[in-house]
């Protein structure tokens, strides 16, 4: 399947059951990157409230979940987690051996998905984060018992249009939620704090927030593009007796490192709790 996708990247029909912000972000990334033509995307939702965003992208829409499965072999399920079991039960009669089904729903394990679908259905699970909206997401995917390496590679290749995508064991999906899903909020708190420090010292608010955000962006690009460990880049910035080491000392006194580790741990533990419910 991956070879077919590579040869004709825009001929595949892709479906979305659920048309919320994350579904829209994934569809937008695929279309902008030329992975799929907009006219080959079909999205379903109970009302037009979110479908209008798909129509604005040039996609097809419907109120029938079964129609999506009947028209598309690759389908993303992007409903609320508590709604997903009923949706899977609804579409199960039209699922075939040709389908590759991808769950975006947080906290629903692959085993539960497979139980609700016909035997041997190829199911994968992805965990995206909000920056997928600007095609800079951090995503992981895990495959079910009947999904092979070709399905995983197909999905990974498509999702790279929305950012970075890595295949992991399912046990690490909840860790990704704590690190990257919730981590967006943690980074925002740090960016806000950086800017407020500058505001305290006399810089205008708008300028401080723009510079703080750009500092985070530039640092992230250096870490990714140069493959450096964060400690190495930190050392490069930190000169003996300079401004940075004085600031780092203040951060250590405030317990930033321990607090951040605890935040990721707490978010991961909560994700695991939700997965068990």
Automatic annotation (TrEMBL):
Q: Where are the transmembrane segments?
A: none
Do you know which PROSITE patterns this protein is assigned to?
P5CR
Name its GO BP terms in alphabetical order. Answer: L-proline biosynthetic process
Q: In which pathway does it act?
A: Amino-acid biosynthesis; L-proline biosynthesis; L-proline from L-glutamate 5-semialdehyde: step 1/1
Q: Which UniProt keywords apply?
A: Amino-acid biosynthesis, Cytoplasm, NADP, Oxidoreductase, Proline biosynthesis
Subunit architecture: Homodecamer; composed of 5 homodimers.
Q: Where is the Pyrroline-5-carboxylate reductase dimerisation domain positioned along the sequence?
A: 170-274
Supply the EC number(s).
1.5.1.2
Localization recorded for this chain is: Cytoplasm
Q: So where does NADP(+) get bound?
A: 78-81
Q: Which Gene3D superfamilies match?
A: NAD(P)-binding Rossmann-like Domain, ProC C-terminal domain-like
Tell me the protein family, please: Belongs to the pyrroline-5-carboxylate reductase family.
Under catalytic activity, the entry for this protein gives: L-proline + NADP(+) = (S)-1-pyrroline-5-carboxylate + NADPH + 2 H(+); L-proline + NAD(+) = (S)-1-pyrroline-5-carboxylate + NADH + 2 H(+)
Check the record and name the NCBIfam families matching this protein.
Answer: proC
**From the UniProt record, which GO molecular function terms apply?**
pyrroline-5-carboxylate reductase activity
Report the protein name in the record: Pyrroline-5-carboxylate reductase
**Binding-site residues for NADPH, renumbered to this chain:** 65
What function does this protein fulfil?
Answer: Oxidoreductase that catalyzes the last step in proline biosynthesis, which corresponds to the reduction of pyrroline-5-carboxylate (P5C) to L-proline using NAD(P)H. Proline is synthesized from either glutamate or ornithine; both are converted to P5C, and then to proline via pyrroline-5-carboxylate reductases (PYCRs). PYCR3 is exclusively linked to the biosynthesis of proline from ornithine.
* Superkingdom assignment: Eukaryota
